[in-house]
Amino acid sequence: MPTLPTRTIGPFTVSAIGLGCMNLSHAYLPRPDAAEAERLLLHALDAGITFLDTAALYGFGANEELLGRSVMHRRDAFVLASKCVLGEIDGKRGLDGSPAAITRVLEDSLRRLRTDHIDLYYMHRLDPNVPIEESVGALARAVEAGKIRAIGLSEMSAATLRRAHAVHPIAAMQTEYSPWTRNPEIAVLDACAELGTGFVAFSPVARGLLAGGVGAAGVPQGDLRGGMPRFQGENLARNLELAARFRAIAEAAGCTMAQLCMAWVLSRRDFVVPIPGTTRIDHLDDLLGTFAHPVSAELLAQVDALYPPNAAAGARYAADAQAQVDTEVWDDEPLAS
Q1: 122 is catalytic
Q2: Number of alpha carbons in the 13 Å side-chain half-sphere of residue 92
Q3: How many of the other CB atoms lie within 10 Å of CB of 19?
Q4: Whose CA is closest to 191, among 168, 222, 163, 210?
Q5: What are the start-end ranges of the E strands in 290-332?
Q6: What is the pLDDT of residue 93?
Q7: Do 87 and 124 touch, CB atoms closer than 8 A?
Q8: pLDDT for 290-326, tens place per residue?
Q9: Selection from 281, 203, 214 nearest residue 29 by Cα
Q10: Predicted local confidence at residue 1, as pLDDT
Q11: Are 29 and 222 in contact (CB under 8 A)?
Q12: How far apart are CA 40 and CA 67, in angstroms?
């Protein structure tokens, strides 16, 4: 099996690029059939990826079930991450960070995943109705019981990270991070460095746009990205103009757009681990090709110049999704109303 470069996330040593499993079952279209999804997961392990990320939310449990039936016979080959708090409530997406809900969702996830423990278990979002200390307390008890090995947070602020860390060490913070979403640079990356918390970057290729996966026609009807302002109308047109300039930098570097994105994210801090998602084996191999195409500091600086904070046109989330996010925003960042 190939050996990829590694990085440290809390107590775990993982491949420097992990795999986000969401779009095998959830959010983005088109989705692969079950056999294709299983082949991709097994290929990821064969290619040396040792970090798989899922959540109770994804497909309302279907993504965890997919991992449970397809890769758990190789349980010792990878670090397994999943998430709670954000999930299905009465058939709809909702938040419940109460200790009782966390305990119940964890048991359901263990059953779907066909395992007796989850290595890294995140609070997917902050429930504003439950003090973070109570939610983390429930997770700490799960650590004591051996049902999870480490605790993570997702899409939360530096202040919330510090409050949580005071209850129990936080192994990882997961937040969107790419050239067009640089919010973690406001405070969270510094807080992670201070506390010894790893940082897991989701959507590191800008939800496919900076991998050349989105064109002027946008995304298919029903795709989650269609409700995000950055993928709509004039915002999308502007973002595709920037992407064309990004492509030119990648061509000058002798790599693909996706590889340039990954190189940029990996260059930010040595404790950052990106977890791109894909439904195609050739795209996964392209992402892993990042390590074979070093990018100069000069070209990475060109990416910085092209994508300063707030360069992307449009809000990151629609208003309802933004209301569930605790991350810092830039002073002049556009927000959906």
Answers
A1: no
A2: 4
A3: 27
A4: 163
A5: none
A6: 83
A7: yes
A8: 999 999 999 999 999 999 999 999 999 999 999 999 9
A9: 214
A10: 60
A11: yes
A12: 11
Reduced to 3 states (helix: H, G, I; strand: E, B; else coil), residue 146 is coil
Average pLDDT over residues 100-114: 98
> What is the helix (H) or strand (E) element at residue 88, kind and residue range?
strand 86-89
**For 145-256, where are the alpha helices, taking DSSP H only?**
158-167, 188-195, 233-253
SS3 331: coil
Q: Do you find a cis peptide bond into 30, omega within 30 degrees of 0? A: yes
* Whole-number Å distance between alpha carbons of 179 and 252: 17
Q: Which of 28, 58, 177, 317 is catalytic?
A: 58
> The dihedral of CA 78, 293, 172, 92: what is its sign?
negative
As a whole number, mean pLDDT of residues 129-158 equals 98
Distances (CA, A) of 230 to 73, 140, 255, 321: 40, 37, 25, 14
User: Which residue type, as a one-letter code, is found at position 221?
Assistant: Q
pLDDT at 91: 77
The set of residues, in sequence order, having a beta carbon less than 8 Å from that of 273 and lying 6+ positions away, is 7, 9, 14, 16, 17, 18, 51, 198, 199, 200, 201
Two structure tokens written together for 81: 């991450």
pLDDT of 337 > 90? The answer is no
- Which of 121, 185, 195, 129 is closest to 163 using CA atoms? 195
Pairing of strands 92-95, 86-89: antiparallel
Q: Please tell me the predicted confidence (pLDDT) of residue 89.
A: 81
The Cα-based distances of 9 to 13, 195, 271 in angstroms read 6, 12, 7
pLDDT of residue 253: 93
Output DSSP code: residue 218. Answer: B
φ, ψ of residue 194 to 5 degrees: the values are -65, -40
Domains for the chain: give ranges and CATH numbers: 6-209+261-295 (3.20.20.100)
